[in-house]
Design a protein that fits this description.
It contains 5 helices and 4 strands, in the order αααβαβββα. It is of the alpha+beta class. The relative contact order is 0.18.
């Protein structure tokens, strides 16, 4: 599962999916970021830790089922991550894990980019974003998130 990060002035597909999935929580978060609510006290949440661990295990299983070893983008600055992703795409690698895609205020980390043999304006191949979801069914916010990854990818 892509990590959800928020930098001042940056938006992510994960943040939007969270916003769409829980408007009350999202509205509270936006108020907090505007300084209208105090920062919450950190609390250990065993259920959240379990969900995160299970999500990572699911993503690892998805990765193992995909063809070829991936080029994994290491987490660094957004600029470096997007440069590494672009370089991997330019080399035509078949699978990119944790691909960083950015445009304007948007930045997102797609779980996987899969090479497809369809040309794009700059290469004889292109990529499709894939997302590993530990869910029984896709929800609208999941579809919006993967669509935003696709939109960001189209700009690259």
């Amino acid at each position: 599962m892509a990590a959800s990060t928020y930098e001042f002035g940056r938006l992510s597909p994960t943040f939007l999916a969270t916003f769409l999935g829980c408007l009350t929580s999202a509205a509270w978060t936006l108020e907090k970021r505007r300084g209208l609510r105090p920062e919450p006290k950190a609390a250990a949440d065993a259920q959240a830790a379990l969900i995160q661990r299970k999500g990572q295990e699911h993503e690892d299983r998805c990765l193992a089922a995909l063809h070829g070893p991936p080029v994994a983008i290491t987490r660094d600055t957004p600029e470096r991550c997007t440069m590494e992703t672009r370089a991997a795409m330019d080399r035509g690698v078949p699978l990119i894990a944790q691909a960083a895609l950015a445009d304007g205020p948007w930045i997102g980390y797609a779980d996987f980019l899969m090479r497809v043999e369809a040309p794009c304006p700059t290469r004889a191949w292109s990529y499709d974003p894939w997302d590993a979801r530990l869910a029984h069914a896709a929800r609208p916010e999941h579809v919006m998130q993967i669509a935003l990854y696709g939109d960001l990818l189209a700009r690259v």
